[in-house]
Amino acid sequence: MAGFILRRLMWFLPNAVILTFVLFAAVTVWLGSPAAMMLGRDASPAAIAEINTVYGFDLPTWQQYLRWIGAALTGDFGRSYASHQAVSAMILPAIPITLELTAWAILLALVTSLGLNSLAVGRHVIGVLSSGFSIVGITFPNFMLGAILIYVFSVKLGWLPTAGWIPWQSGVIDHLTHLIMPVLTLFAYYFGSFSMIYRAEYRAVDQQLYVRVAHSKGLSPTRVSFRHILPNAVLPVVTFIGISIGRLVGGAVVTETVFSIPGLGRLFVGAIASYDFPVVLAMGMIVLTSVMICNLLADIVLASLNPQIRL
Amino acid sequence: MNTLHRRDVLAGMGSIGLAGVSWPAMAQGTPTSGGTLTIGINDDTKTLDPTFSIQQAERQILHLLYNTLLTIDVDFSLKPELAKSWTVENDGKRYVFQLQDNVKFQDGTPFDAAAVKFNFERRLDEKIASPQRTQLAPIIDSVEVLSPLSFAINLKNPSPGLLAELADRVGFMISPTAAEKYGKDLGTNPVGTGAFKLKQWTQGTELTLERNPNYWESGKPYLDTIVFKANPNTAIGVQRLMVGEIDYIYGLQPDALRQLGDKPGIKTEKSKIGRWYTYEWQVDKPPFDNPKLRQAIAHAIDRDRLNQITMEGQATIANGPIPSGLWWSSPDNVVYPYDVEKAKKLLAEAGIAPGTEIPMWTTPTPVDRRLNQLVAEQLAAIGLKINIIPAAISDFYSRQVSRAINFSITNWTQRADPDGLLFILFHSKGFANVTGYNNPKVDELLASGRVTQDRERRKQIYAEIKDQIMRDLPYIPIFFAAEFAGYNSKLNGVVWMPDNHPRFRYAWKVK
Amino acid sequence: MTRLSKFLRRGFGIAIILIVGAAGAFAPWLGTVDPNASSSDILAASSAAHWLGTDELGRDIYSRVLYGARISLIIGPAAALVALAIGAPIGLVAGYSRGKIDMLLVQGIDVFIAMPGLIIALMITVMVGATAQNLVLVLGFVMWPEMARIVRSLVLGLRDVFFVEAARSMGCSVFQLLTIHILPNIMRTIAAQFAILVSSAIFTAASLGFLGLGLPPPAADWGTMVQTGFDYLSLNPLLSLAPGTAVAFTVLGFYLIGQAVD
């Protein structure tokens, strides 16, 4: 086991370096010097040349990479070209926001999909409904869902505020009303995915001997569903949540843009659109490393459960 | 005609303590103190350090956190602010300023001539790399401290446009102590002499300012708090205004007014001078180095239709870069009326075959996109196929500057001095000259406009420049846009300046 | 899934795709006017002349949605094809080889799969510009790992099955084994995955359009239309809702087929 972990770690480091370098090179080489972008309309050739020297844009790529990675490993991701703010100071406050949004969505999805699908035993209608909803949830574009929610609940009915984010401290009610629509938008996708995974596993568990025993004991199907099947069928769903950490940011991107929420997704998109290298690189690296770490952990967990994998 | 030694002293504005700018209020009545003003803005604010500020949305906030040396009035005339008076000496190569007394920065340190000198040197410092450096370095020779409350600027060449710059980004005075203390973090920890202080800022979402109790203009400001809320788009902004979530929003296109309808409690105001929308292209290389092609396109664009569809007919058609209503405005002598037949004829004379493809670049801004699609349609009618290429807005400016973009729509706001806009665009060495326009006669006129002090003479010079530009067509002017502001009728005292930025400093709300 | 549900899914899926396909193919005849023709009747509500009203340039929304079907039905399948062309061979090789080569490939695939595809597509599209070719290539590039992984697991499953053993013992080359014996048996699943990838490509393309990276104007790109419409939600919501519904509909159709084919 230890050998397996060690081998995986050995792969990890070179992978990380190569991938981050590719990311860095792609971003810097392709886009050229961001000097003109930083200066806006006041850019003149002289000013651009100055910025190039001050920030080191005229150095070869690998040197710039080393500079950057050296600083990054100490937590210093440089400063945004647009706002001159420290990048870490920009990213840190966005993390809890995206986390909160996603946590609510995942929680809601977990409860409803597990509940609905477990309840569906014997209740055909619920099964069909849940099936329908999950397909819609997976395929329905979240920007469209957002548009519909905004149109119905904000423009027409005026019940909820259209967009924006109010922190807890400024008012719990306000915070919650601003949360409702974005969470619902995100929730749809998770509901769909969880349902599909859960139902597949559910069917497998349903065949098991102990479930049949439970049935034969005279327990109501619903009780069997919740008490015996659910705890065993829920594992793949949990694993799915674990490995979709990388998707967290991706999933949030559109929703955060639609509702103007200052989370990681919107930060990333804004930085990409304004060629704000330091922010793009910092976020890219964070996503990259967290994805690789999660993969590694998932592999280790699965390997410890299933010795066959440790070839 | 006397351009020699002229004293230009502004009398009567120097009363100690109460010296402030008297801008016309929106409505009559005595100002009431207290209350919160919430404003909806579209852009993101990136930094509150005027040394690096380039975003439009930041300016209105900077005017609240800081003061400028001079300020402009609604007719673009220059008025005192931190500088209570000034004289022009040495043929326009030296300005001497007297500063307001008893002004303190928000960190308690005094505002004085040494602070002013620090601010100028900060803008000129190579290592700091401020975007304003390239503008100022060729003009300013040195800044001298004459006494604690007076300083002088020595110029390399006369530059009447400089005073107008001191009412803008260059003139925002930062506390030297704070600049040293915060260094690069000054952008999130601004310290000026302004009427408001920064209270809280969630970038991209909300920014809150609170009243500066030690503000030097006694009795002001009236409001306790000002909040800037970022609107994801205009429709949401207008909605917020209608439900009372915000009190003021500007930059609205006429179709946003449809949304407002006749809602009671909401008023609207039209901007005096709209942004100048114009097409630009590079006239020193093919295909647009062909004057007949340029003229053909000028005649092929139906600007009334563009006005009708994008501005509900409320914009003013532009026949040059200078709108009416300014002291340097002049009659439109050279015009290109919409004439498809003439356009086709000119196109044939230009030797351009029908079906020729021309790329056109666009930003994601809705107005730009709409105009571009309409113009593409109109040019297709005379046989030119336009390929629209989108670019992100930050990328757009940098490509414009590096002249990788040829043919696109652009827009400019007016500056307080005609030299401000016209020189940078039309002088062969103007740094915003992306068209490659090079007409020695115009260069000469611009240079003389720069050093002439006599207003009447300058007006004639700029009229000549305008006519020549319209003959040469480095740009095709479209219109001066119609922009609106919507606001809660309880709000007073907001002044929408002709540079397109509202001033909120002296605003107040009826209870 | 039950026979009935499979039948229903297949039925609905095919029906939807046929409708969307017809809309795209017959757009010039079904549409009321030239989709790019502006008019001064901007943001009009639906009427006899304009069934879904007009957009911010006075263009007929109904016609534009129809023409938008062409864009989606070209980009979607093309991107899935690219993913197939890259992913299937890699998956085949990885599944068959085992050992070092497999491990290397699997590492690569796994990293890519967990990445948020939208973000990578976003970054690359911003750099290279959003033209039809670029979108197809970028989306294909983002999706190939999924295809590779499925193919690999299928091949792994079949590798040691009896008939393959038999063929190997008869002296077939690796290439013959892969193409003649293994490939036909996994075609069905690949086809199902293909449909799902088409669905995913259309979804991502629309999302990119919504974030401002759709095809250049005046193309009737559904995602871009939704984004533009956001500004006018209270004036004519159909500007956003109509193309958005079209996207949802089309994505659903391909997805249902993908599910039901297996």
Give the helices and strands, then pairings.
The complex is a heterotrimer of chains A (311), B (511) and C (262).
Chain A: H1 2-31, H2 35-39, H3 45-55, H4 61-73, H5 87-119, H6 124-139, H7 142-156, H8 172-206, H9 209-216, H10 221-233, H11 235-243, H12 245-259, H13 264-273, H14 277-305
Chain B: E1 36-41, H1 56-65, E2 70-72, E3 78-80, E4 83-89, E5 94-99, H2 113-124, H3 133-136, E6 140-147, E7 150-155, H4 162-165, H5 176-182, E8 196-202, E9 206-211, E10 225-230, H6 234-243, E11 248-252, H7 254-260, E12 266-270, E13 276-280, H8 291-300, H9 303-311, E14 316-317, H10 340-350, E15 356-362, H11 366-380, E16 384-390, H12 393-401, E17 408-412, H13 418-426, H14 440-451, H15 455-472, E18 475-480, E19 484-488, E20 491-492, E21 495-496, E22 502-503, E23 508-509
Parallel strand pairs in B: 1-10, 1-11, 15-16
Antiparallel strand pairs in B: 2-3, 4-5, 5-7, 6-7, 8-9, 9-10, 11-19, 12-19, 13-17, 13-18, 14-18, 20-23, 21-22
Helix pairs in contact in B: 8-10, 13-14, 14-15
Chain C: H1 3-25, H2 27-30, H3 61-97, H4 99-114, H5 117-128, H6 132-159, H7 162-169, H8 174-213, H9 222-230, H10 238-261
Helix pairs in contact in C: 1-3, 1-10, 3-4, 3-6, 3-8, 3-10, 4-6, 5-6, 5-8, 6-8, 7-8, 8-9, 8-10, 9-10
Walkthrough of the structure:
The complex is a heterotrimer of chains A (311), B (511) and C (262). Chain A has 311 residues and is an all-alpha fold. Chain A has two domains: 2-91, no CATH class; 94-261, MetI-like fold. Chain A has helices spanning 2-31, 35-39, 45-55, 61-73, 87-119, 124-139, 142-156, 172-206, 209-216, 221-233, 235-243, 245-259, 264-273, 277-305. The radius of gyration of chain A is 24 Å and the shape is flat. In chain A, 40% of the residues are buried. Chain B has a domain at 276-480: Dipeptide-binding Protein, Domain 3 (Dipeptide-binding Protein, domain 3). Helices cover 29% and strands 22% of the residues of chain B. Chain B is built from 15 helices and 23 strands. Chain B has a seven-stranded mixed beta sheet with strand order 8-9-10-1-11-19-12, sandwiched between helices. In chain B, strands 4-5-7-6 form a four-stranded antiparallel beta sheet, covered by helices on one side. In chain B, helix 13 (418-426) packs antiparallel against helix 14 (440-451) and helix 14 runs antiparallel to helix 15. Chain B is globular and about 70 Å long. With 262 residues, chain C is mostly helical. Chain C has a single domain, classed as MetI-like fold. Helix content of chain C is 77%, strand content 0%. Chain C contains ten helices and no strands. At the A-B interface, helix 2, helix 3, helix 5, helix 12 and helix 13 of A face helix 3, helix 6 and helix 12 of B.
